[in-house]
């Protein structure tokens, strides 16, 4: 497996992973009407726009056949100075649990460290216990709870914070 920066022709693959993961991960957590409205086309537009904004980007994980099996996106976290937000992390369902997510998290953490950030955060939807367990196992601490807004759909969410980036660089 190789992790590398995203390029435009990766958008279709990450849009599929993103859409499929939202529809399964958040089933029973977010309203079905919202989840049904997430389409591949909408996700392609979202991610193409996302990666072309200043200070935002993503890394993809590719397997030995150069197939994209996961991605992680980042942007500055507006609430804290020198904090990078791990904005999205999605792994192809058939390979989840194999350490790909951890490698992507560490890649974003190293990117943050190498680009002058001092902290890293991630937002999670309450009820996505598996994600919360992964991040807290990797030393993220609760920072604050808030109501997120997914295109008009409110969600009880939390921000987790890595106060120090050393864990990603010196391990």
TrEMBL record:
Annotated keywords: Transferase
UniProt xrefs under CDD domains: NAT_SF (cd04301)
A Pfam family that the UniProt record links to this protein: Acetyltransf_1
Keyword Transferase included in the entry's annotation: yes
PROSITE patterns: GNAT (PS51186)
Recorded GO MF terms: acyltransferase activity, transferring groups other than amino-acyl groups
Annotated ranges, domain N-acetyltransferase: 1-166
Top-level taxon in the UniProt lineage: Bacteria
Protein name in the entry: GCN5-related N-acetyltransferase
């Amino acid at each position: 497996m190789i992790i590398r920066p995203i390029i435009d022709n990766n958008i279709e693959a990450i849009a599929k992973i993103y859409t499929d993961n939202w529809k399964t991960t958040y089933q029973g957590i977010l309203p079905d009407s919202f989840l049904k409205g997430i389409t591949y086309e909408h996700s392609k537009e979202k991610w193409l726009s996302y990666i072309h904004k200043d200070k935002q980007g993503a890394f993809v994980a590719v397997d030995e056949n150069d197939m994209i099996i996961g991605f992680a996106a980042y942007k500055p976290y507006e609430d804290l100075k020198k904090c990078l937000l791990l904005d999205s992390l999605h792994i192809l369902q058939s390979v989840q649990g194999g350490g790909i997510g951890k490698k992507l998290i560490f890649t974003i953490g190293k990117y943050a460290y190498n680009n002058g950030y001092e902290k890293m955060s991630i937002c999670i939807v309450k009820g996505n216990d598996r994600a919360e367990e992964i991040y807290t196992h990797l030393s993220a601490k609760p920072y604050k709870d808030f109501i997120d807004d997914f295109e008009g759909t409110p969600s009880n969410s939390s921000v987790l914070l890595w106060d120090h980036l050393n864990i990603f660089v010196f391990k």
